[in-house]
Each structure stands twice: as C-alpha cells, then as structure tokens.
Amino acid sequence: MEEFIRLDETYLLQAAELFSSSFAGEPWNDDWSDKKMLENYIKEVSGGYNALNYGLLTDGKLCAIALGSIRHWWEGANYNIEEFCVSKDLQGKGIGSRFMKMIEDDIKKMGVAGIFLQTDIDKPSFKFYTKNGFSNLEKHVSLFKNVKRSGQMKFQLAQKSDLEEIFRLYKNAIAKMDEQNIPQWDEVYPDRATLEDDVKKNQMFIGKKNDKIAVCFVLNEECDEEYKNGKWICPDSRFCVIHRLCVSPDFQNQGIAGETMKHIEEVCRAQKYDSIRLDCFTKNPYSRRLYDKCGYTVTGYADWRKGRFELREKKL
Hints:
With about 325 residues, the chain is an alpha+beta fold. The chain has eight helices and twelve strands.
C-alpha cells in the first residue's frame, strides 16, 4: 500500500538513510560515510526558505523522497528539486514515475508553474526524467569553480630523490596494518629493491599533498601467473594493472584513496585502456570497501604467500 506524504522533521533520519543508500553504488558511487556531513546536507536541501519535501511510503516504510523548495520567478513559481531518489531495491518498478506524478498533481493545486531539477546527462536518471516529460535546457549550463587551492593532491611520476620518503611511507603503512591485524605486507614484500625497481622503470607514481607524499601506486601491464584464475569482464582487452597502492597513515581517512582511484581511471582512459585490473587481500576490509565503492568486480581468486587475494576488474 502506497501513501503520498509531505515530509517533516520526523522523517529526517529515514530520508538521509534512503538518500545515502540510493547513491552508494553504480553509477554514482557517492561516499556518505561521514554521517555528520550527510545529516548537514539533508538539513540544507530540505530546510530552506519555502521548503517543500515529499515522501512515498510503501507499507509504512519510506521508499522515495523529493527534497526541495518553491522558488519565485517573473514567469511564475517553480518547484526546485534538489534531490530525488527511490530505494534501490524498488527501482525499475514504476514507483519513481508514480511518485513524480503525485508531486505534479500536488503542486498544480498550489498554482506552481513547473519543476526544475538537475542531473548528469550520462546517468540513467536523465532517461528517467525525459521519459517523465522533462526537457533538456540545452542553453542552460552548470558552472563550477574550484577555489580550494591549498592542500590539493598533485600526482606525478616518482623520482629517485623521492625514494627515502617512499620507503618510510610503506614501512609506516605496514606497521599500521599490523596494528589492525591485516597481515598483507611485511619486510619481504614490498621490499626496498622492489620499490627502487618501480622508480627505475618509471612505473611508480606518487600523490603529494602539502608537499608530502600521501599515496604511492604502480601502473603497468604486468601481472602474475595467478591472474589466469580470473574470469575477466574484458578477457581480450587492453588492460592496465594497479600494484602496491598505499596511503600514508598520516593521510588515511581523508578520501585520498578514492581520489587516487579516480585519477588512475582518468589516466587509463586517456591512454585508451579498456579496463583496469588489480588484486585485493581478502583480510583487508578497507581495501575491499574501497574497490567495491569504486565499482571493481571480483572475477576470481589467487593464493599467494600471505593468503588469498581477490582478482578484480573494472571496465572503463
């Protein structure tokens, strides 16, 4: 049984949970792990001047939300939707279209002229909105200017002069993993000789923040024999492999790994790779969560000295 309602503050927590879960996976991959940030955002988009928020209940459970406000213009008032989403397990069942029709019927009674919203043109949501009668305002563009200059990540090829700092980064990271009972690396691997060889072969990259190395990673087309165990998504494609991705403990929990993965994907796309492959230690929950969030699919497993590793791939 469906019930169309106007949301009030009592639904704030449910709305936040529905919103974050709806955009957590592909194709959005939004990271709302910072619950305070999520709470503030929902309050901001739902609590402004002339706020108007709708919800759809299915058997008493909130399954769809529209958060926004009425905005006045010389041509008439519009309902500006800041966020619109349907529970992931109910998408593709016509609920979104029915919910939008309910919203339209309600704002017509208020004398509102139209609905304005924004979405990404390359996402399924664009097709959904056009199917429901929305038009693409081709002369209307969204603009953004980044004014946060200090502290930005700068990615570059590692140099011989970076080696000592790189060694320290991996050593500190291994100590941190030992504290967390993640026996992934040790003094045997990745050792100094391996890292020196990475730099010598111009395949080690670093990301710097505030002039300090925050992350290291290796990119090449090489993989161990055990990669044959993977049932690869793109078996006959040109692929790049990520090795030894490591974030300094001083920069962990700051979104560095996610930012690095986005950078790697941009580089690989520019170099015309079809996919990216990597392996992930099964006892490292942080790496597994990262790669899940970034859309890397488990295609098989490999067993090495330290245990079992997942073989993952993402099509670009």
